[in-house]
């Protein structure tokens, strides 16, 4: 078994992968992604923030 220090030293930051949103940017026609894939906006209906990787436009996708 490892010591707590050994364990913490070997911890690696999980690789951040873009979560693709499956929708296209209105302007660029390229696929947008979820900048905060785990954050669902608490409204009705629930929406998720999506962002264009090209123009950085933020929009909201109904989940
Ligand atoms: Zn765009």
Structural class by helix and strand composition: mainly beta
Can you give the mean pLDDT? Answer: 90
Count of β-strands: 5
Low-confidence stretches: none
Bound molecules: zinc ion
Q: How far apart are the first and last residues' alpha carbons, in Å?
A: 43 Å
Strand proportion, as a percent range, falls in: 25-35%
Which of globular, elongated, flat, extended, rod-shaped describes the shape?
A: elongated
The number of helices is 1
H and E order? HEEEEE
Largest sheet: 3 strands, antiparallel
Name the helicity range: 10-25%
Strands ordered across the widest β-sheet: 3-4-5
Explain what this protein looks like in three dimensions.
By secondary structure, the chain is mainly beta. The chain has a domain at 32-63. It has one helix and five strands, in the order αβββββ. The strands form two sheets. The protein has a three-stranded antiparallel sheet, with no helix packed on it. Strands 1-2 form a two-stranded antiparallel ribbon. The termini are far apart. The model has no long low-confidence stretch (mean pLDDT 90). It binds zinc ion. Zinc ion (ZN) is lined by residues 25, 27-28, 52, 54-55, 57.
Quick gist of this model?
The protein has 63 residues and is mostly beta strands.
């Amino acid at each position: 078994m490892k010591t707590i220090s050994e364990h913490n030293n070997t911890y690696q930051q999980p690789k951040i992968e873009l979560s693709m949103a499956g929708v296209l940017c209105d302007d660029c026609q390229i696929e947008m992604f979820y900048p905060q894939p785990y954050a669902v906006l608490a409204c009705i209906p629930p929406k998720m923030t999506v962002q264009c990787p090209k123009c950085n436009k933020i929009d909201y996708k109904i989940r």
